[in-house]
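User: Structure please.
Assistant: Input sequence and predicted structure:
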Amino acid sequence: MTKAKKRKRQRRESRRARQAEGDASSSSKLEPSAQRRERSSAPGERPRCGLCGKTGELTRTECCDNWICNDEHLYVPFTYAKVSCHRNHDRYTICATHHHEGHEGDWKTCAKCRKMCEPEMYAWFATNEYNFERLPNPPAYKPTHCAKCGRVIRLATDGYVVSKGEYMCSRCGTEGLPDHLRSGL
């Protein structure tokens, strides 16, 4: 068995063991931010990832200097899988964007960051599970509706098409396309 396969099997077994422990532990009933606080390592303990709690190969985030899994190499390009704590924080949070854009001050009060995307997306980027610290009062926003059928589109998670400035759900936005083009949408 190759070293890579052994490591993969060990990670899988470790993940299963943690899941079994998590199901039985009382911390699974805590709010996500309380779980993150509970995961942070005590003095003298080995550091833990602030998102998943692992103690394996860790690094510090460039944006907020928190411990996080050094696991970006696990991501397979174009899969859009959410398997990497490091990649998820780096790509799906205002905290990391604020750092990448070189903005001054705290990301939670940055006016430039608020203007970078739709209020719905800003709220998602600032409060999703990939944040170490979530924005306490995200902005209110009106839901986005499909211009054809009126269905609510959740911009952060649903498929949609933007054409001529109008949002359409993936069903309406792909009408008229051949089946082989619609199958992946």
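The CA atoms of residues 36 and 50 lie 6 Å apart.
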